[in-house]
Amino acid sequence: MHGNVLGIEAVMPDGTIMNDLSKLRKNNTGYDLKQLFIGGEGTIGIITAISILCPQRSPAVNVAYFALDSYEKVQQAFIEAKKQLSEILSAFELMDGKTQKYLAQVKGRKLPIEGEHPFYCLLETSGSNTDHDSEKLQTYLEHVMGEGIVEDGVVGQDATQNADLWSCREGITEILGHWGGVYKYDLSIPIGEMYDLVNETRDKLAKAGLIGDDDSHPVVDVVGYGHVGDSNLHLNIPTRRFDKAVEKELEPFVYEWVAKRNGSISAEHGLGITKKPYIGYSRSESMIKLMKQIKELYDPKGIMNPYKYI
Amino acid sequence: MHGNVLGIEAVMPDGTIMNDLSKLRKNNTGYDLKQLFIGGEGTIGIITAISILCPQRSPAVNVAYFALDSYEKVQQAFIEAKKQLSEILSAFELMDGKTQKYLAQVKGRKLPIEGEHPFYCLLETSGSNTDHDSEKLQTYLEHVMGEGIVEDGVVGQDATQNADLWSCREGITEILGHWGGVYKYDLSIPIGEMYDLVNETRDKLAKAGLIGDDDSHPVVDVVGYGHVGDSNLHLNIPTRRFDKAVEKELEPFVYEWVAKRNGSISAEHGLGITKKPYIGYSRSESMIKLMKQIKELYDPKGIMNPYKYI
Fold first, then answer.
1. Of A194, A270, A300, B140, which is least packed with CB atoms within 10 Å of its CB?
2. Where does CATH 3.30.70.2190 sit in chain B?
3. Closest chain A residue to B2, measured at CA
4. Out of the domains of life, which is the source (chains A, B) (predicted)?
């Protein structure tokens, strides 16, 4: 967003109109103030207009879904995809085996690949030439399967099949609510350690006796999925009921774990009200002070989207 | 830069260290303060460390250089390139006929294409597969030549030839100083009107009797080149000597012309000292006020890179 937003018009708390609604890419005259509004959660001013860079829609889109034996191999498959598919790689999504098992179970559907596997990835390419892209994707899949990085894979043959493969990723959020509630975390973590958090969180809840198959346990399971290319993990804990004992196990454990690795406790969704007390896990005290100064400067009466992170 | 810089560490005027040196892509916790330092010309703090997203170097690079009859056709060739080469298009540069004529003359070199043409473009592709990219480029060139958009063209056969084609673009800045000095403008202008400014500036200087072949005229010529993909024109006026009469013709004419089209008077090079009085042509009064408030907030004593735009 910081690279693709060309201009913003916003109304400041005192009624000043910040008119920075450029339609051109480059304007290197003074501070790029519009950036403060992107991710600013409306705490400085209200955005009233925006201009965004729109690339042409790609005529060629391919989707592959494949199964892997370990998180180590997920990383290898990703590195090869960056190398071989680079300019056409438009998505590389991770879904762990449990998300796919529950998806099949709750939806009563068949998965695109037979058997149970610990990890699945969905890969999408977007480009201008169908033949070229299909050939690149084929070469890639032959390579990763030949090297034993990927166990099994399937490529969508048309838009309907592509949408079905995508539904294995996009359907996760919905089905995780099946048992009652979900504790959700949206985290940036260095890619090498990203999945460790899922395992450690599961172990921790198991040790506390909070996780299990029957109603006496609040927690159903701990699952992980997300955007490998952005080092962005969605750690989700489907539960039968919200429970203080579970919350005490999860927090500040998750935040401390992420902070220790210089990650972010809110990668893409912002802090809002729920996560505002935790900003200190992702920002230093001096950074927070500099942010507060901006808030006080532009909104001294605190009337813009109040009670948020600042 | 606003999209590719992942983190910045900077020292503020009061000694505070702004530590925002993330190595991850996403961190949506609070204002993205590092953005103020990008293009801020050191007026808030001194950047002491930076982390930047580095894509893999493309194994396949192709360069084409071609001649066109009109600026209208330059735009058509560009639209086709965005459509057909989209994900591998890494440069689309404009050089007008005069820049190439003077390049040949001053350097005593042959141009890649015979004859004189009003416009030239340099196009570069960067991708992961040489065969695919060459095929796309070939198809593109056949299309634009078949449609009469491009008059003549040449494609580099190896890295040496590619470098030679690039030198026809990159050599311009140097050779324009040949006669003494150059008035330089770095402007964002909507692509449709971009080249009009070159013609209008030349007409204006001609009407004032300031442009000509011999020493009695200060101005040698008015030329234009730049980055079509960014709507970024480099308007250059090579002169035999700096002359107040020329300056009076150029300014505020150029700035007013750009402001009328909501362009930028400094697309990529910043304002520095020379252009600081002209910020008002690219930023509204309320924007400048908001910028001044930031400067006063973080650098109340005005000790960071003083005498610049704020």
1. A300
2. 60-170
3. A3
4. Eukaryota
Q: What is the pLDDT of residues A81-130, one digit of tens each?
A: 999 999 999 999 999 999 999 999 999 999 999 999 999 999 999 999 99
- Residue A300, preceding peptide bond in cis (omega within 30° of 0): no
Architecture field, domain A5-54+285-298: 2-Layer Sandwich (3.30)
Question: Looking at residue B123, what is its pLDDT?
Answer: 98
pLDDT surpasses 90 at B308 = no
A-chain CB neighbours of B297 within 8 Å are 293-294, 297
The tokens for A190 are 């260095």
**Hey, is the C-beta of A135 within 8 angstroms of any chain B C-beta?**
yes
Pick from B193, B159, B186, B172: nearest CA to B74: B193
Would you place residue B309 in the very low, low, confident or very high pLDDT band (cuts 50, 70, 90)? Answer: confident
- Tell me the pLDDT tens digit for each residue of B238-254: 999 999 999 999 999 99
Report in angstroms the alpha-carbon separations of B295 from A168, A295, B21, B26, B299: 49, 15, 22, 27, 6
Whether B19 contacts chain A with CB within 8 A:
yes
Cα B154 vs. chain centroid, distance in angstroms? Answer: 23
pLDDT at B310: 74
CA distance A123 to A61: 11
Q: Quote the percentage of chain B above a pLDDT of 90.
A: 95
**Fold for the domain defined by B177-269:** Alpha-Beta Plaits (3.30.70)
| CATH architecture, range B5-54+286-298 | 2-Layer Sandwich (3.30)
- Which chain A residue shows the shortest CA-CA distance from B295? A31
Backbone φ and ψ of A169, nearest 5°? -95, -45
Task: Decide if B298 touches A, using CB distance below 8 A.
Answer: yes
Which of these, A191, A112, A121, A110, lies nearest to A149 by C-alpha position? A121
Write out pLDDT tens, residues B251-291: 999 999 999 999 999 998 889 888 989 999 999 999 999 99
Contact criterion met (CB < 8 Å) for B26 and A188 = yes
Structural tokens at position A114: 């037979």
Q: What is the mean pLDDT of chain A?
A: 96
Considering only residues B307 and B244, tell me which one the structure prediction assigns the higher pLDDT: B244
Residues of A in contact with B294 (CB under 8 A): 31, 33, 294, 297
**List of chain B residues whose C-beta atoms are within 8 Å of the C-beta of residue A20:** 287
Instruction: State yes or no: pLDDT of B171 exceeds 80.
Output: yes
Any CB–CB contact under 8 A between A14 and chain B?
no
Q: Does A263 touch chain B (CB under 8 A)?
A: yes
Size of interface A-B (CB pairs under 8 A): 234
Q: What percent of chain B has pLDDT over 70?
A: 100
- The SS3 assignment for B235 reads strand
**Residue ranges, CATH 3.30.70.2740, chain B:** 177-269
> Which ranges of chain A would DSSP assign to H, the alpha helix?
34-37, 71-85, 97-107, 130-146, 159-170, 172-175, 196-207, 244-250, 253-260, 285-298
Residue among A28, A62, A189 with most chain B CBs within 10 A, to mutate: A28
Those of residues 172-211 in A touching chain B at CB distance below 8 A are: 188-190
Q: How large is the average pLDDT for residues B15-42?
A: 94
Q: Give the mutation candidate from A290, A291, A298 for the B interface (greatest B CB count, under 10 A).
A: A290
The residue of chain B nearest to residue A30, with distances taken between CA atoms, is B40
Inter-chain CB proximity B24 and A279 less than 8 Å: no
For domain B60-170, give the fold: Alpha-Beta Plaits (3.30.70)
